[in-house]
Amino acid sequence: MGALPNKFPGFQDITNAEHRAKFEAVYGAKLNPEDGIHLTLMFEAMGRGELTAAFVLGENPADSEADIDQARKLLSGLDCLVVQDIFMTRTAELADVVFPASVAWAESDGTVTSSERRVQRTRPAVTPPGQARHDIDIMHELGKRMGVELGATEPEALWDELRSLSPMHGGMSYERLEAEGGLQWPCPDLDHPGSPFLHGWLWEVDLGGRGPAPFSVVEHEGPNEKLTVEFPLRLTTGRSLDSYNTGVQSNGFQSPIRYGEELDINPADGVALDIVDGERVSVSSPRGTVEMNVRFQPDIPVGLTFTTYHFPALVDINKLTNDAWDKRSGTSEFKAAAIRVDKISA
After folding, report:
1. Positions of CATH 3.40.50.740 in the chain
2. Contact 301/189 with Cβ under 8 angstroms?
3. Domain 233-343 of CATH type 3.30.70.260
């Protein structure tokens, strides 16, 4: 909620004076009228010495960022790094302070929103272990230590505060979420059924009276990092079915379909490189080198390689990825690094 640097909850613009006034009235404080910076720009600001402290909640940038050696160097150089998480991640190991948090989907009460915009209720199935505390309780106590009273800590009261501020959540009362098993935003009032299609008006005969559908043309530029004689293969990274992101929550259990520490490569490329299926090789990019096993995959195109990023303890693959980033989305170019594969001398 409100994690975008240019939006309040409900995708309301920070630069809009009416939007700011609504939130300022509830929070009793003046709010910054200028857009913030996204994660990639944060790391650039760390490099310039302009950002000197960070509070990381439930993320593991010391394993997930592109050009990971540089990212770890910048995180280690902060004046203060605070991490709030459910595991002692690599990022938490770098922190000055670690707040052990509860697991939102198993240990706390509240709501969760899926990628299809469906909001559902969550309830604790187990009690948080040891000294772990709920996220809101940690934040509330931290506010007190800094001289600020953050208000309610009850999940339903916080949700109703959101509903009062975000028009697209207005109709999603706890009572309706309980009765209907979940609702998809936008859901502006208690009589609204929710929105299975975010842009459903595009299917209406008259486009909902909104005029022509928006359409824009962009020029394809291709990957920022070009293939060269020294680095002739393209590396792309992604997910496997049974794992998640840097593996913090998924690598602690076994799976019969798990793989991911191998480099998938077309057999023709393997023959050209004089390597065999399963051989351990050296994989390099302009930023670094890792060792990993190859796995011949005939359905992958010649010249392309693939691996996952779920197992940084086994293969620190983000040593290879580059930190060029798209100016509209702010996302680094994880999917297109130039690499070289070499045999390892006996």
Report:
1. 7-166
2. no
3. no
Q: 12-28 burial, b if ≥16 CB within 10 A, otherwise e?
A: bebeeeebbebbeeeee
Report which of 331, 326, 319 is spatially closest to residue 284, judged by C-alpha positions. 319
Per-10-residue mean pLDDT of the chain, 346 residues long, equals 87 95 93 93 95 95 90 96 96 97 92 94 95 95 94 94 96 96 96 91 72 81 92 92 79 78 95 95 95 95 93 86 83 87 87
Strand 288-296 relative to strand 304-308, pairing: unpaired
Give the C-alpha distances (Å, rounded to integers) separating 154 from 28, 160, 210, 284: 20, 10, 40, 51
Residue 343's nearest CA partner among 268, 285, 287, 293 is 293
Joined together, the tokens standing for residue 248 give 């913090």
CA gap 85, 98 in Å, rounded: 8
Spatial neighbors of 79 by CB under 8 A, at least 6 apart, are 52, 53
Where does 7-166 sit in CATH, by number? 3.40.50.740
CA dist., res. 12 & res. 186, Å (int): 13
pTM (two decimals): 0.86
- Containing H/E element for 334? none
